[in-house]
Amino acid sequence: MKKSFLILTLFLVSCLSEERNTKAEAQKGFLDLSQHSFASQPFVALHGEWNFFWNTPPSKIKETSSNFYLVLPDHWNGFPMPYGTLGGFGHASFRLKVKLAENSTETMALTVHEQDTSYAIYVNGEYLGGAGKPGSNPNEYSPKVESTLVVLPKGSDLTIDIYVANYIHRKGGIWTDVVLSTYEKGESRITKRKINETMLSSILAFVSLFFLVMYFYNRDGKHTIGIFLFSMAVFLRTISTGERILLEFADVPYWLLLRLEYISWFWSAPLLYHYFYTVFPEDFSKRMGNFFYALSAILTLGLLLPPVYFTETASIYPFGFVANGVLIFIYLYRAYKKNRMESKILLLGMFVVLAGATNDVLHAESLIHTMYIAPATVVMFVFLQVITFGRIVRQNIDKTLEFAEEQKQFNNSFSHFVPTEFLYHLGKTDIRDVDLGDQVQKRMTILFADIRSFTEFSETLTPKENFDFLNSYLQRVGPIIRHNNGFIDKFIGDAVMALFPYDINDAIKAAVEMQEAIRIYNSHRANCGYIPIEVGIGIHTGNLTLGILGEHKRMEGTVISDAVNLASRIEGITKLFSSRIVISADTFIEASDGLGYHYRLLDRVAIKGKTESVFVVEVLDGYEPAKASRLVSTKDDYTLALDAFRREDFEEAIEGFAKLLDKNPDDSVSRLFLDRSQESKEKSKMEMGS
Questions:
Q1: Helix (H) or strand (E) holding 491
Q2: pLDDT given for residue 555 in this prediction
Q3: Burial class (CB in 10 A: 0-12, 13-18, 19+), 413
């Protein structure tokens, strides 16, 4: 902050810095500069007593025709004449005789800045330049305000006449310094002033547009439109006062230029107040803001009148202008005492603006003779606002990042309850977008996994031990499901229901890896003296409806489908066959082309709730590797025995399954079919005997 302020201060000084005028006081219309060194003091302001010739052009001046002297710079308004005091309208000549050094080789020049409201420069009786066209009556006169630099003739004795006319402004006369210098210095000064004002106006235009763009990106940031309007008002005043750089780009008539100057002046104060009100609404009075708005609106309507009327406001409005600045400063100080955010830097900026505005008002009223500095101070103020805006943006970004991180953590936390994949398939990216009744139809593979005899098993554990056990188990199988492109839809006690939306083989691969993880888990349990667990897994593929179910105060994601029920029933079949992994025929058929696992057909089984029985298939890779290897090696024998059973050739079936059990005593499926074959054989004998 301190570095930024130092940089801005140096910028302001660089804009305002120029060699100051040396005031030379003329006496009775004469000024002796024969001993003056223009090398050490290059700019001499020709102050003091000038001969004043009222209603007289230079060509009609007689040396004895007037013994009136007017101390310049000043307006002639109120000057006492034998017939009364002068008003603002009229024309007059100002004469000053100057004595320069005899041996000077420098090319000298005279700089005359804007005067009210036209002037012509004569030196030794020769017209050298001016602004507008002064004349003895309004018909011979045309107003214009701009600076003029003229080259003076060689010689040590100069008679300078400045002819001024005014029939439009409230005041007339020479109210700014008339400066004598070398031509090189005078030209350099005017050029520098124009460059500075061009640079200041460019900065103001850029910054105002910057804040306008910011407003369109964030309509809630009303302070940005406030600083835009204030910057634009000062921009208009910068190009219409001082060196009036607007005239460098367009031939703007005097009546328009004057009104542009006044309207920008009238509105800069209330717009600045409005800006601070939007930043600190608790500390600024809205009523006072409305008062200044009303005052500026009335004065703006006055611009429809001739200049002689509305320029009279220049003697009244400065009090309102300065009062506005003082009120802003007081309210800002109040905000600062309350430790409002960024109030300190704004208070500093306002102090600079108030100082610049006060200087400009006093300069315009000829109470002091300096130069317009308010635009430069406003640029400094606006830069401070940019710094403030940047800090606010940075704080908002930090808050946004914090909020985003909180949202991320929130979403991550919520994804523990509602999987992000669930939202994705609903076409949602945020849990807040989910509404009751949202649903979509998909074809997916459903996996059910259930711990066998968990009810009896859990009765031997305390409630805490039950939770610890289930969490330990689920910590092992959950990641496997996600790793294989699936997601857990819900936990149903000790059972897990998972969905695999992309590839059937993802579900089968997950089931095989889950069984492997359970075997590892059982080895750890055995080391701790705990009994092993067995998990049956059923898989089915079908169409399902995935959506949001419940009521407005309590909703949850769920899946509704006959396919889900069938997958659950198939998991139950694993208990019948004492199998590890059983899949439906539908799943088997769809996956068979890319099925990378060993399998064997089981049987057509009746499913509760289904009118037709369903073929099921066992995935052999769900067993421990040694058992799986044995089952794979006898798969052909198993197929022949199963075929005999289905042909009701029970003798062959019994023989076949018996041989299988000799090789694989722990083949629970062959044992089941052997028992069924024997039962069916006995039943056939009984039926034949009867």
A1: strand 487-492
A2: 57
A3: exposed
